[in-house]
Amino acid sequence: MSSAVLRTSKPALGFASLVRLAGQSNGSQAGLTRTLLGSLSSCHPLHRRSWRHYSVRMDQRTGLLFRQLFESQSSTYTYLLADAQTREAVLIDPVLETVERDARLVEDLGLNLTIAVNTHCHADHITGTGLLKKRLPGCHSAISKDSGATADIHLKEGDRVTFGKYSLEARATPGHTDGCMTFVLNDQSMAFTGDALLIRGCGRTDFQQGCASALYESVHKKIFTLPGECLVYPAHDYTGQSVSTVDEERRLNPRLTKSLEEFVKIMNNLNLPKPKQIDVAVPANLVCGIQNV
């Protein structure tokens, strides 16, 4: 049994050594715990996407394991993080089409995947969390409580997903969607920003409860306040880049270095086509991606 716990701002009730119930008024909301984590990673961008299967770096001193994986159809990054001693692992933003690849990597590395978490309810691909739960018994799904999506674990601002002496802090970063979350490693060396902050960009705000001013505030208050050397790992990249830093984005992001008024104007005039899979992906992701699986 795992000893990982989900730490919340309210007292939690014991539920075996693997699970804790996050206090809710109706007593029914399970705040399952899980997991994590992973090593500092210096990932080299690969210019040919067919080569970019995953990036890796192990920090032997701290005992953290990290893998960055890529799905080419939606240009989605999936992140595997694990405690090298306990072997507990978490997967961030899994994609349905690459579940077998990810499950096989978990098994090859001798890991116990306890949680698969989405940074938000995606519109451009179907999440792999539902299928992963079937493929790897003991895995549980997680997403923000503000997403409106079904999951085993509903996270809120300030929750910490722990694994041994490490944890990921959940920071609510709405604006792209209401339920967007950024996950920050406890030493603030890594931030998994979903679509809120991309490398030299950000998520669009013209559908799914999008709000440009809310996104601007989220990034500036919840991400740009992190140390400058903190590594930024987004949910997507379309230009062959795999990692940035908070300092780089504070200085060089062509949208988020503008004033709020300029940013809102930019976001309101992107005129982008809607994501190809939105009509299929959003309904599926609202039920953990398990329909028709």
TrEMBL record:
It is an enzyme of class 1 (oxidoreductase). This is Persulfide dioxygenase ETHE1, mitochondrial. Homodimer. Monomer. Interacts with TST. May interact with RELA. Keywords: Acetylation, Dioxygenase, Iron, Metal-binding, Mitochondrion, Oxidoreductase, Transit peptide. InterPro entries: Metallo-B-lactamas, Mito_Persulfide_Diox, POD-like_MBL-fold, RibonucZ/Hydroxyglut_hydro. It comes from the Eukaryota. It is found in: Mitochondrion. Its main location: mitochondrion. One of its GO terms (molecular function) is sulfur dioxygenase activity. GO terms for cellular component: mitochondrion. Pfam families: Lactamase_B. SUPFAM superfamilies: Metallo-hydrolase/oxidoreductase. Belongs to the metallo-beta-lactamase superfamily. Glyoxalase II family. It catalyses: S-sulfanylglutathione + O2 + H2O = sulfite + glutathione + 2 H(+). Its cofactor is Fe(2+). It comes from Lepisosteus oculatus. Its EC number is 1.13.11.18. One of its GO terms (biological process) is glutathione metabolic process. Residues 75-236 form the Metallo-beta-lactamase domain.
